[in-house]
Amino acid sequence: MLAAVGVASQEELYAEIPETVRLRAPLDLPAGISESELFAELRRLAGANSPAGAMVSFLGAGAYDHYVPAVVDAITGRSEFATAYTPYQPERSQGVLQSIFEYQTAICELTGLPVANASMYDAGTALAEAVMIAVTQTGRKRVLVSRGVHPEYRQVLATETAGLALEIAEAACDDGVTAAALRAADTAAVVLQQPNFFGGLEDMATAARAAHDAGALFIAVVDPIALGILAPPGDYGADIAVGDGQALGNPLNFGGPYLGFMAVGEALVRRLPGRLVGETVDGEGRRGFVLTLQTREQHIRREKATSNICSNHALNALAALVYLSWLGKQGLPELGLLCARKADYLRARLLEIPDVAPYTAGPIVREFALRLPRPAAGIISALAERGYLAGVDAGRFYAGLDDVLVLAVTERRTRAEMDAFAGALADELATPGADRG
Questions:
Q1: pTM value?
Q2: What is the CATH number of domain 35-68+331-430?
Q3: Helix or strand or coil: residue 225?
């Protein structure tokens, strides 16, 4: 920079400033803090204007309170991305096509599978599309889905396949882990989630072998943050991996928009729904990007269409790409490990409370479930009055689990917040009187 402005040294740069007014002594400033810590402090100061303040979130179940770095908004807010449409004309859409290609590459590296599509609407629709790929590929009509797969994803699957005359069978998930004996005979696909809805870690390799032995495809519903420290689906033989990219730079926003991702083995590339961007060269040998292996008409042929998904969440996918690039190969494992350690700490603190017991045992990544001595709905309501979003009532989705609370811990939760939450839960459980659930 000195050379660019034509000076030989920093002293020469400041030559016009009198010595008497130059700052020589070190400034009496506190140590620097990270961007996330700075925003937390600014939120604390801004919260002084509101008597209610901000809620401390331990919600999960597919919607996570991760920190979104400023670079995500800075890039996704640019006009060429914010107004993006499906790039049918490559000569006018190289920027958008390249961003989608780079996103697909990131998903492939994340999942360990060779091909990913542009993006899906959310994890639920991605799962439904994955099942339809399996049904078309195998010619079978039965699908085996673990009850540990997110109940809302399973609801979307049931809705989207209602007209296909499929048999959606369920595998038991007792005490937070899918039953080991999977009856996969005559099935098109076996579906497990890792980690599952309760935060439990499944034996994905064994399930994949059971599926393949029966001639079925194995579909893994995966969490992208957990993939920082867990084996990728490609390593344990998954044919299709799907999941939700909300945790990848997409903030909580009243339920959406979210981002579904999908990756497959090469044998299924022609059956991929949505968009697929490929890399090529133009007539002059320059690198370029185009929609490939599919035509637009492939998605608008009614019952003959590959899929009814005709668009993609390109802006959300770009946010995920920027976020993953910001984290890098070292940052993603560090984030996954940080969440796991914080979740393990909070679970240990909460298990110190009398009559609180684990529902999911074993290691966890970010989410876990506990059995409470009272219905979870009432506890959630009471703790909301104390400023906490205390988790998800499993009884909303599972009969007989009204006393099970599912909690999630991200890197944004501090030890002070977790200790205070444990104290608030202990106080609430120790308070006599009628339950408010």
A1: 0.86
A2: 3.90.1150.10
A3: coil
